[in-house]
Structure formats: C-alpha cells, structure tokens
Amino acid sequence: DTSLAEVNSFSPSMPISPSSMINQYKFEDEPELRDLFITVDDPESHITAIETFITYRVVTKTSRGEFDSSEYEVRRRYQDFLWLKSKLEEAHPTLIIPPLPEKFIMKGMVERFSDEFIETRRKALHKFLNRIADHPTLTFNEDFKIFLTAQAWELSSHKKQGPGLLSRMGQTVRAVASSVRGGVKNRPEMFTEMNDYMETFSQKINVLDKIAHRIYKEEREYFNEMKEYGPIHTLWSASEEDIADSLKGVASCIDKCCKATEKRMAGLSENLLPILHEYVLYSEILMGVFKRRDQIQGELDAKVDALAHKKTEKDLFSEEIGKLEDKVECANNALKADWDRWKQNMQCDMRSTFTNVAENNLRYYEECLATWESFLASQTVDLHVEEDSEDRP
C-alpha cells in the first residue's frame, strides 16, 4: 500500500528565503544537497465578469531524473493549492500534510486583495510547497509533480479525471469513519499520548495566537497615537520661545520611537503571527490525522469482532484481518515517523520565532532608551550652561 508506506528518512525542514532559488540545505542524517527548489512569486490579479482572483508564479528547479526538464514555470491560483492539499490527504491519510492559509487569512487585519494580504498569502503558499518538497514521502507524490510541471490546461484536464486507487482508498477510510462509533478499543498507548499532547498543544497555541493578535492590534493603536503625539510638540514650540528647543527635542524623540515601533510591528506581523497561526492550523490537521489512524484501527477491530461471532467464512475473515493488520502497521509507522519529524520542526520553529521576538524587543527598548537618554543629557548640559551664566556678575 504505497499510500501508507513507512516513512524511514528524517529531515527537519528549515526556513527558506522566498527571494532565492539557490539555497542549499544539508540535513543531519542526509549530507546530500537538495534536488528540488521551489519559489512562489509574481502575484497577478485577474478580473473576469464572474470573479476576481490572484494567480502566483511557481518556479521549480530540479535535478531529479523523474522530471523531463530541469526547470518549470507555471501559474497557479489558490484553488489549485487547495486541490493539491486534498489529493495529498487522500493519498497519505496518516501523514501530516502542511497547512494552507485560510481563504481569508488575517481577516479583520488586512483587506482582501490588498498588497499586504497578497504578500502574506504568497509567503504562506511558498512555505506550503517547500514543506512538501522537504518531506521524505510527499515530495515524490505524483499529483505534487503534476502541480509543479503541468500547464494550466493540463492541470485542469488532470483534475477532471476520475478518482484513482489512492483516492478511492481515502473514500473508504471516510466511509469507515461513519461506521465507527465510540473510542478505539486497541489503540496503542503511544497514540493516546500523542492525542493528549496535541489537545494540550492546541489549547496553548490557540491562546498564544489570540494574545499575539491582541498585542499587535494594541501596538498598532499605540503607533497611530504616537504619530499624532510628536507633531503637537512641534506646533507647541512655535508659541513657547523659552522652551522651544526642548519641545522640538521631545518631538524628535517621539518620532524616532515611532519609527522603532513600526519596525517592531513589522517583526510581529512577518515572524510571530504567521508562525503561531500556522501551528494553530497544524494542530487541527494533526487531530484529523489521529482520527484517520483510529478509523483504520477501528476497521480492524470491527473485523476481529465479526470473526469472533462468525462460525462460517473464517478463512475469508482471517485473510481480510491479515491485510488490515498490515494496513494498521503501515499507518502507525508512517504517523510515528512523521510525528517525530513534525515535533522537531515545531520546536525549531518556536525556538527561532521566540528568540527573534526577544531580540527585536531588546533592540526596540535599547533604541528608545538611548533616544531619551541622549535627550536628557542635552537638557542637563543646557541647564548647567544657563546656571553658569546666571552666576556670573
């Protein structure tokens, strides 16, 4: 069953620069260089009588023998990415498929089709494809290859084809889901622990995501108020000759702090918010993977129970049970390997993200502190000069 093949290799995915096609990765367990490079860029708006949509250029460079060319350039819209994700889920029900951004990602923070929205989505789509490319099993999926290489009309034709073996298998798993009721009787303890871990992780990451968005919103409000606060001091200085320099100095400090705040906001929107939200989506995906694994286990349990109550057709049932046992073992092995890989990637991403936030905060406060300390020092010098002049006869 190729859809549930055991995932033996391990390669933690690392962040990739969306502006470069020449980044080369070295893995701890795999010293060879990457052989598949993907970039998503050049968004274009398309307006028709029916709809308005964005397409993105997907450029692929590869040295793999199964590709007919070493370089491909195609254009894809968001619906095409959704199609690819659904095909990967059908073909590999117990592997962890990377999340896609929602149709209206960061709703309420940016307007749809604004430059900020399009750039946020472009980065997310770029990361989605590169996470698949880095995956030891998903990277060789045939639909993934077609997505990267087929022209628009060829992809459209491929989508219209009937479901294949892997797709039918996915439908079978979903059918089993409707027949399985209650908990799985023979679920291994390892998967119970994974499920418990993800329930806690999901709760914590959702809280972090909400707080981070609230912090960003409050930071934006603070920034907008600071932009009005500085100029007031400049206007005031025009009518206060004796303290004009001091007021202008305050205005200058506020302006510098305002620019530092804007940089910190950019760091939050580009680094912290997308990573936290990506793992909110990952938590939903993983809970779905656990359910699909339980569904396969449930199918086996149902057959075993049926065999215990059947006196006839025992040979047929025994053969089916043997196949299901193999299927469950393959599903377990695939999920275990993917779980270890995902967990290491998650820990690496979180460590990198929070370290980056801490460093940005440190730079921000150091910059603001230096700005105000410099202003205070200048005021102290001016005060001493005035006192000296007053003491002179």
Largest β sheet strand count, sense and barrel closure: 3 strands, antiparallel
CATH architecture of the largest domain: Up-down Bundle
In CATH terms, the superfamily of the largest domain is: Arfaptin homology (AH) domain/BAR domain
The secondary structure category is: mainly alpha
CATH class of the largest domain: Mainly Alpha
Low-confidence blocks of residues: 1-31, 105-110, 165-182
Q: How much helix, percentage-wise, in residues?
A: 55-70%
Number of strands: 3
Number of helices: 8
Order of helices and strands: EEEHHHHHHHH
Please, could you describe this protein's structure?
One of its GO terms (molecular function) is phosphatidylinositol binding. InterPro entries: AH/BAR_dom_sf (IPR027267), BAR_SNX7 (IPR042131), PX_dom (IPR001683), PX_dom_sf (IPR036871), PX_SNX7 (IPR042130). Belongs to the sorting nexin family. Residues 34-155 form the PX domain. Keywords: Protein transport, Transport. With 393 residues, the chain is mostly helical. It has 2 domains: 34-147, PX Domain, CATH 3.30.1520.10; 187-392, Up-down Bundle (Substrate Binding Domain Of Dnak, Chain:A, Domain 2), CATH 1.20.1270. It has 8 helices and 3 strands, in the order βββαααααααα. The chain has helices at residues 78-91, 115-134, 142-149, 152-160, 165-179, 189-237, 244-309, 314-391; strands at residues 36-47, 52-62, 71-77. The chain has a 3-stranded antiparallel β-sheet with strand order 1-2-3. Helix 5 (165-179) packs across helix 7 (244-309) and helix 6 (189-237) packs antiparallel against helix 7. Residues 1-31, 105-110 and 165-182 have low confidence and may be disordered.
